[in-house]
Give the backbone structure.
Amino acid sequence: MSSKHLPSGKIDEIIEKFFSDPSIRVDQPNYFSNLYLLRKEANICMTVSPKTLWAGAMVVFAGIDLLGKLNRGTKETVTKRFTKFCEEFVVYDDKGLAAPLYKLRCAMMHSFSLYESDSKKRYLLTEGLGKEIVVADNNYIHFDVARIYARFEGCIPKVKSWIELNKVTLKNDLMERFEEYGFTYVADQQIFVPVSTATFTVSGGPV
């Protein structure tokens, strides 16, 4: 299948292109995987010194939204899609974290703010909360962006496995989702500076 929004190839080739390793330079393929681009940007945010936690969190939430669309489609509400995806792939060992992650995502992506209207508390973006992703005190709700980033990276192989498992029964749906959300066409120009393999370090799996 090919279209003006999708690179040529069978579904197996499309899957491999979408999940391209962001530490490997891609020389002007014209069609860039949106996940590939997001992961490169997230890696830059989370490996520079000091880390850019605000931008990094926003890129990671965009990546979770993207994977959620591929996994669940767009017929559900955004709230349900995001939280259900997180429960299954991102915070599967502590599903109660899906709701606060969604609230932070909405505050940042829609209002560009760090305010929780329900509890009237402020969010703080940080790192180094030990094993915790979210910690609340009397005044603030602390989110460990480095751990959220690691969870995002850790969920990607699981999503790829799910897609490969369902690529026959859901082929038409998956190809439609890849066409709508999977790739960005870029003319003959360089749009980013590739991240070197040496700087791309991510811990996957449960953290």
About this structure: Confidence is low (pLDDT under 50) at residues 196-207. The first strand starts at residue 31 and ends at 33. Residues 11-19+30-179 form one domain. The CA atoms of residues 6 and 40 lie 20 Å apart.
